Amino acid sequence: MARLLHVSASPRAAVSESLAIARTFVDAFAATHSDAEVDEFDLWDGTLPEFGPAATGAKMAVFAGETPSGEGAVAWEAAHTTFRRLNTADRYLFSVPMWNSGIPYILKQFIDVVSQPGMLFGFDPEHGYSGLLQGKKAVVIYTSAVYGHDRGPAFGNDFQAPYLRDWLAWAGVEAVEEIEFRPNLVTADAETGRAAAHARARDLGNTF
Hints:
There is one protein chain. By secondary structure, the chain is α/β, with parallel strands linked by helices. It has a single domain, classed as Flavodoxin domain (Rossmann fold, 3-Layer(aba) Sandwich). It is built from six helices and seven strands. The chain has helices at residues 17-32, 53-63, 71-87, 105-114, 161-171, 191-207, and strands at 3-8, 37-42, 91-97, 121-124, 128-131, 137-143, 175-181. The radius of gyration is 18 Å and the shape is globular. The relative contact order is 0.18.
């Protein structure tokens, strides 16, 4: 049975463009994958653990071949629980609005929580990193209200898509599709781009 994990990075609920496109994708996916399970992970729902001093201490202990203890063990288990939610899915949907040319901080927190040695990646002193999320695939929805590929630097820069592309590749996810909706809401009618983004979401949802 296929399992889709939707990781939502927008806090804007019903007025979010990225979430609206994600809903179109999920509806199409559910309609054509009747036996699939869909897990909706709202990163703003309060369940995402922090990755602070105790957790980083535990991570360094694991790197050193030691077993975390005390607060570190608790923090490490919280990270492991979040990672298991990611790892038990075989298909991912990320809905990602652009914040200040990059990704929302809550998504960076999620990435920092799940990107752990022996979980998301392996490391060899001679050959470096190896991603452990093998055989999985992802769709990423990118939205931005001002930045666009054909606009100058006065309209911002894109550290959003390159970051997610690099992280997914590093994690071992090689099959990645993207949906973009980047209207200039200050000067342009967004409806044409919005319709195109939803159409692509519907097509990908049907075949993902």
